[in-house]
Amino acid sequence: MTLQQFLKKRPYLLWYVKEPEQASEEAAVEAVLNYGDMDDVRQLISILGIKKVASIFKRQLKQKRVNYDPKISHFFKLYFKKHA
Q: So what's the pLDDT on residue 36?
């Protein structure tokens, strides 16, 4: 399964985008980690790889404006520290 197919089957992750299958990897990672369940997270990791997802997540946390809920960012900091 490609990232585009994954996003097309889950329009609830990017409800604010007209064509969710056209979203970038960065937007997909943010949407899945913020709004997806663990099955969505596992599927995203199987598509992109855990190192790439962790890298994108860490890069997003270094930006001035962070769109992650504090509980979500704390959880995934611990998750990627252990698994990536």
A: 92
